[in-house]
Each structure stands twice: as structure tokens, then as C-alpha cells.
Amino acid sequence: MQAPYIDLHTHLFSPDPSVWAVRNFHQQEKHQAEEFQGPISIGLHPWFVEEGSWEADWQWLERESARKEVVAIGEAGLDRLQGPALSLQEEVFLRQIHLAEKCRKPLIIHCVRAWEELERVTRKADASIPMVLHGFQKNVAVLERFSDQGFYFSFGEALLKDGSTAQKALCAAPVDRIFFETDDGAHAIQLIYEKAAALLNRELPEVQMLIHSNYEKLNKWITGTGWPERNY
Ligand SMILES: [Zn+2]
Q1: Which tens digits make up the pLDDT trace of 150-186?
Q2: Full-model pTM
Q3: What's 205's domain CATH number?
Q4: 198 CA → ligand 1 middle, Å
Q5: pLDDT at 225 (0 to 100)
Q6: d(Cα 40, Cα 33) in Å, to the nearest integer?
Q7: How many domains is the chain partitioned into structurally?
């Protein structure tokens, strides 16, 4: 049997039966998250954290995080270019690390130009859950820094650009800690797998099996049985 194309992080709906996707919803998409019939990740996205109202969003996240369809918390994290003051972002991010730890689910991380802060907060949290840096496209030095801390890396459409830092980072990443994703991009996940297979010098089915077994490692953290069904 051929392993599905696992898309670890997407904001878009794909009815393609060869894809097993983790759909992401943030705090402004509560209703969609509650209705969705399939694996999801939910979190307080740093762009939409607002002083004064995030506590209400927190109640929602805490309540919904227990659902079996929720296979990861996030995307959560830090963004120097968008969202409220970094001090508030850090507070909300740290709480989400603790929540992920409490409900034993992996954490999907969004980080833009706040790598020092990310390292400090995650070291302070000292969590044992798997943490995935999504949309990774930084250089090998940043990859190694977080690889040493045990992070996973999810690569997206930046891989399609020849000579990109994302391509170099993929080739330097520990293969047992990589994933692929479409995020909100226009490219099919199949295309990203094909590019990755070429870069890693492996056959496509071998890469699909590799990502499948990497996902099994994340999944074993989740209390419950097996992978959630997709009912669409
Ligand atoms: Zn995203």
C-alpha cells in the first residue's frame, strides 16, 4: 500500500484522497474548527493575539484541545513583523507550550525574526512534547541550533526555489525529523514531495514512507487510538 502524502500544515481544504492533511484553524476561525470533520491543529496565532480579548480565545482553545480531531496545538509562536508586542506574544506562546504538554499533543510553531526569543522561551518551558518549526526556510546554522534542541522541521513551497536556504536546510536536516506542508500556498503537496525526493536523492515512495514513520512518532504522543478519520 502506498503511504498517503501527509501535509502537516495547511489552511486550505483538499478533498484529494491521496492526501492526509492536518488542517489548521486559528482563534478567528473557531466555528470552522468546531465543524471540521478530520484532523486539525488549533492555536492562538500570534498575528491575532489581542490585549484584552485573548483570554476568551484561550478558553476556547483549552476546551477544544481535548478533542480527538485535534492532533496538534498551533500554529503558535512569535512574529517580530506582525501582531502585538513580543512580550505579550511570548506570554501567550508559553501558555500554549504548557497546554500542549498538558494534553500531550505536538506543537506547531510559527516564528518570524524572533529566533533568540524562541530559543529562550522553549528552553525555559523545557517541554517534552515534539515541537515542529513550520514553513522552515532559514539557514543551516538556525536549523542546527534547533535540531540540537530536538525540534522537527516542516518544509513548504520555499523548497521549490532552486538555491534557496530552505533547500540547503532540508539537505542538512535529520531525516527522521522532517515534514512537508502546503500552508496557504498555491502548490500541491505532491509537488513539494517530488522536489524533496530529488533533493534528498531518494525515490518518492521512500520519502512518503519516511514522512509516514515520522508522523507515527508525533502521533504516539497523542492520547487516543490511531490517526483520526477524515470524513470528507
Ligand atoms: Zn500557516
Answers
A1: 999 999 999 999 999 999 999 999 999 999 999 999 9
A2: 0.95
A3: 3.20.20.140
A4: 25
A5: 57
A6: 8
A7: 1
